[in-house]
Each structure stands twice: as C-alpha cells, then as structure tokens.
Amino acid sequence: MEGCRPLVGFDGCHLKSAFGGQLLAAVGIDPNERMYPIAWAIVQAKNYDNWLWFMNLLKADINIENDAMWTFISDKQKGLINAVETIFPEAEHRAITRSADTLVEWSGGPKFLVTSTSGGYEMVVDTFNKTCACNKWQLSGIPCFHAVACYHSRNIDPVQGIHPSYSRDMYLKVYEHILQPINGAELWESTPYPKPLPPNVKTAPGRPKKRSRKNDIPAVYPTKLKRENTTLRCGHCKEYGHNKRTCSLKKSDGKVKEKEVAEASGKNNETGGITGTNEASENNEQVEISQGVSQHVDNLQESQEPIVQPTP
C-alpha cells in the first residue's frame, strides 16, 4: 500500500456454491493503473453490520488515521453508504463528475478562476500548490478538469500536475521488496486449531423463488391495467371483486336459459308429432276413397252386356 494511491473501492458479489454467502472486497489502484486487492471476507449477506465489521478491520489493518486524505468508491447500497459514513466520516465518497465546458481567467501568478458555463459555479485553481476548490486534485493526486483547463490555457502539459506517487521511481519502489520463498504444503506445520466448519445454513425444500428485477422501462401497453393494486369489475353484472368468467349471476342466468331452450324444443317435438299423425290419417282416407272408386268402376264394366252387331 506504500506506493498505491489513497483510493479504495468497495464491492461485493454472490458466491454460487453449495453453501452460498457473499464476498466483500476492498481494492486499490497501483501506480501502473492496475487493480490491487487489499482485503476480502465471506459473509452471509451484504448489510450494514457486515460492512461495518469489514471496514473496522480494514481501517486497523492499513492504519488509516486521517480519513480525510482518502477517497472511497462504491455503488449505492444502502448499508454500504451508511457504513462508510460511520467509519470514514471525513473521507470523499461520491462519483467524480466530468465537464469540459469551462471558462478560464488568469488571476495573477499561479492562480486561475475557472467558471463552468453549464453549471454556473466558479472554482479557484492554484497550479503552484496543486490545489483546486473542488478538492479532487488534492484527493486523487491527478489534476481535475478545472486544473487541466488552466494548464491548457498556458500551453503547459497537465502531466506536470500529477503526484509523484504515479512516477516510475515510485512504481519501482512498490516492487523493490523481495517475495520470500516458502516450503511446499507437505512441510507446513499442522495448526492446533480445529478445522473450519461450513456455515449452518439449511436449504429450504422446493424450488427456489426467482424475483424479476423491476426497471424503469415503460410498459408495452401503457393503457392496460396491471393486476397489481387494481380491483376487478365484472362485465356481466358490473360489480367489483370478480370477473365475467367467475360471475355467479351469469352462471345462474345461463342455467335458466338452458332450461327455457330445453322446454321450447320439447314443445316443438310434440307439435311436430301431432301434425305428422293428422297428415298420415288424411293420406290413408284418400287412398281408401280412391280404391273404392276404382273398384266401383270395375264392377260397372263387368255388369254391362256385350253389344252384338246385326247380320245383313
């Protein structure tokens, strides 16, 4: 940590293993702009108590006495933000903004007045003492965009404003320590302490629940009501609390209609049977009458005497 910047990033992730849990990590940045792991721990959940415990150990381990000289970066977790404010109340803990809309005015000597055309605020920059009113230059050791604008107005390379901790000499100083070799695992001393046991976590029976992450994307059908926090209204009886499919009044009305239809169909069948019987009887009477007429004609023909023609 001697050659690293006073910048620490906090984050956590889920452990996808049989025992679960979450990993808390604190990382820094070395002079080569690479990630430098500082500390990590495995906990049950990322909450305020676990972050508080983790940061207390980190503060004691790297010997942070003046937290005003340090900068901490993290996401917007509720427990994490509160823990940083509790353990490091004087430290910088917010996102760095960038803007190129600046107006530089020389105030004499190494001092400049930088005005933002978009925000309307003014910042005093001292290129000799390497300070800026935004305090970002002092915290990170790298010129902020206000200082870069001042250097560019004087045609000076902004690299001159970078802290010596980012130099080549400091980079070599970080790696000048020799890593001592160690024996293999078969020559390690046996520890007198008991073996670590897995956490006492029991997996609940059944399929684990998955909750979809809600986002701010608008719905595809903005006019369609959601089922959540809404009251159903029946389209049949116009009452609230149920829909048309489960309406009891509709079911009773449907049974009445089916009964009426069945009774009407029964009456039609009876009427059709009577009509068919009357027609059949009339047809039989007509057949009998026609048969009687034909029989009478035959009898008349048989009773007539033959006509004999006289001989000449």
TrEMBL record:
Residues 121-155 form the SWIM-type domain. Residues 266-306 have a biased composition (Polar residues). Keywords: Metal-binding, Zinc, Zinc-finger. InterPro entries: MULE_transposase_dom (IPR018289), Znf_PMZ (IPR006564), Znf_SWIM (IPR007527). Residues 196-220, 249-312 are annotated as: Disordered. Residues 250-262 have a biased composition (Basic and acidic residues). PANTHER family: MUTATOR TRANSPOSASE MUDRA PROTEIN, POLYPROTEIN, PUTATIVE-RELATED. Pfam families: MULE, SWIM. It comes from the Eukaryota. SMART domains: ZnF_PMZ. This is SWIM-type domain-containing protein. GO terms for molecular function: zinc ion binding. It comes from Daucus carota subsp. sativus.
